[in-house]
Amino acid sequence: MTGQTTDQATDRPIRVLISKPGLDGHDVGAKVVARALKDAGMDVVYTGLRKTPEDIARRAKDEGVDVIGMSILSGSHLPLARRLKDLWDEYDLGTRLWLVGGNVPEKDHEALADIGVDAVFNSRSRLDDIVRYIEENVARWPRN
Amino acid sequence: MAEKLATDAKGGLDLPRGVEPVFFDSGIEVKPVYTAADANGGNGAGEERPGEYPFTRGIHAEMYRRRPWTMRQYTGFGNAQATNERFHYLIETGNTGLNVAFDLPSQCGLDSDDPAAEGEVGRVGMAVDSLRDFEIAFDGVDLNAITVSLTINGAAAIMIAMYLAMAEKRGYDIAALRGTAQNDILKEMVGRGTWVFPVEPSVRLVGDTIEYCARHAPNYSPVSVCGYHIRESGCDPAEEMAYAFEIAKAYIDETLKRGLAIDDFAGRLSFNFNVFGKLFEEVAKFRAGRRMWAKILKEQYGAKNPKTMWMRMIAGGGGFGLTIDQPENNIMRGAYYALSAVLSGAQTIALCCYDEAYTIPSPKAQQISIRTMQLLIEELGLCDTADPLGGSYFVEALTDEMEEKITAAMRRVQDEGGIVAGVASGRIQDRVSQQAYEHHRRVESGAARKVGVNCYRVEEEKPDVAFHPERQEDVDMQMASLKQVRAERSRDAVDRALKRLHADAASGANTMPAIMEAVKAYATVGEMTKVLADVYGRFEEPVTI
């Protein structure tokens, strides 16, 4: 399927799940990013607050999204990312792009990458950079 | 939103060539100069004095001459023991009040050993499972000298009961005890997000706490209505005040159904407002707000006691204004926010610390915030005179204009079906989040200037940030303590109290007496919340994106 993951490969918009795992109630950033991705022409599903990794994995599968975004500002990014990783195969999440946003300290970026997170963004990230990153790196799902 | 796009907007003023129009965030166009003609025909606040209705100039006649504002820095992390140590540090440093941060499981009504709490225990605040934690957290704190504010919402009824029970156990007279709980669930559903129950029973629970305190702890402030977090979520300063007033009115209306008179309880309601952005807009916001709240209480609710009409407030914070870029700049921002709050006549001030844009503040950062306020008191002479900006052509004119903006924003909420329906449907959340998005775009484009972010940047710079150290032993200690509490308490007493709580919640009786009984029996936060959720259900967040 290589060569079929570019924007031109399909007519349908990129589908993105923006999720709020754990108990963290800071949702300003998640909603700002969701609106930016919508403005860029993507289909965006926002989960609302307090979702478990199971909720997020199921939703990602059911909605057939290409990108899973997790927004975490409580400091619990590592345990929550590990729990989603544990569910990755069970929910057949495959090559979906996995992004984490929030206030992740630099020292944890590598640990998140080791778990399987593709990119980490924070409040200093420009919205257009997030859009461009997704457009350049997304692999459409399901493959057909 | 067009009115907010200041740099693109054509103002209505006839400005000299080369002078660009300027708009405040509330949409008010600002003149380059004000004269007597702008300020109520040169009359300003007229003959009004501080301490006199409608309290534009302040709720006390001599304001800070009698007593400076209360300094109430926000703190809490790990377990009750760790938090108690920081409480004592803050008091020794000069904090004159405490402002308790709870961890997310406690805020959401979960015990520390609940599977949903995994990874979150003690992280953003102090873990609380039972009355035992309150006993430890406030050990050695003189509750008459230091007033305590509990930043708690979804689980507020339980935490208020724990505070009262703890104080009672230590021999304090509950009828005289002062203190505050945030307990503003409607704003929690707009921003901040630690709701538990659906909208209607949640508002009833707030009514339960107000009624209970009015009857048993009349000096305790059971609610601090927060425009603060709605502003953090994106609204403008006039809307911040408008939403807070509409929310406060919803709690008043709920409480009036209980057969209390307005003067029995409304004087103990207080407010929590944000301070960042344009200094004079903030001052005018508070002066207009005080005047409006007094009139609402007197004219709409028939209050007789002037104290009932007071808009008492904690002001400050300013979290939205702080940046992770060049974080030291946040020290200066905090100082200006404190100045704004003092010039506005705040009763209590809490400042976000310079490192709070990314972590739980360090002791040093807390000390700097407290010293910032002490400088205003000791060196800058800010306590000498009440409402020092009163009579300024600019400030008086702006106060009148803010009153109009706040009134219009309140009318919009009412015309759209009221605050409760607006929150339940998610309409208000949707509007506020769109405003946050537009603001973010304006910061990115440079239209809204942010020092160190979109101007005066230092390239190649990696912010030098230290993060709060997480201590696993605090979490382990919490789990062990919870286990011990469960082993030592009387299971029968807990079951009896929880059964009563279920019955009272189901019948619509005030739940506070049963919560008090359960708390005293060392029932846990999770147990009590589960009983209430069995009756009330849980909030289903309207997702509007």
Describe the structure.
The complex is a heterodimer of chains A (144) and B (545). Chain A is an alpha/beta fold and 144 residues long. Chain A has a single domain (12-137), classed as Rossmann fold, CATH 3.40.50. Chain A contains 5 helices and 5 strands. Chain A has helices spanning 28-39, 53-63, 77-87, 109-115, 127-137; strands at 15-19, 43-46, 67-72, 97-102, 119-122. In chain A, strands 2-1-3-4-5 form a 5-stranded parallel beta sheet, sandwiched between helices. The longest helix of chain A has 12 residues, at 28-39. The radius of gyration of chain A is 14 Å and the shape is globular. The N and C termini of chain A lie close together (9 Å). Residues 1-7 of chain A have low confidence and may be disordered. Chain B is of the alpha/beta class. Chain B folds into 2 domains: 40-55 and 66-445, Methylmalonyl-CoA mutase (TIM Barrel), CATH 3.20.20.240; 476-536. Chain B has helices spanning 80-93, 104-107, 131-137, 156-169, 185-190, 199-216, 228-232, 237-256, 262-265, 279-300, 329-343, 363-378, 393-415, 419-425, 427-445, 472-488, 491-507, 512-520, 525-536, and strands at residues 22-23, 29-30, 70-71, 74-75, 97-101, 147-151, 179-181, 220-221, 224-226, 270-274, 313-317, 348-351. Chain B is globular and about 80 Å long. The model of chain B is unreliable at 1-8 (pLDDT under 50). The chains are: A alpha/beta (144), B alpha/beta (545). At the A-B interface, helix 1 and helix 3 of A face helix 2 and helix 15 of B.
Question: Concise description?
Answer:
The complex is a heterodimer of chains A (144) and B (545). By secondary structure, chain A is α/β, with parallel strands linked by helices. Helices cover 36% and strands 17% of the residues of chain A.
Which short descriptors sum up this protein?
heterodimer; A: 144 residues; alpha/beta; Rossmann fold; 5 helices; 5 strands; 17% strand; B: 545 residues; TIM Barrel; 2 domains; five-stranded parallel sheet; 19 helices; 46% helix; globular; disordered N terminus
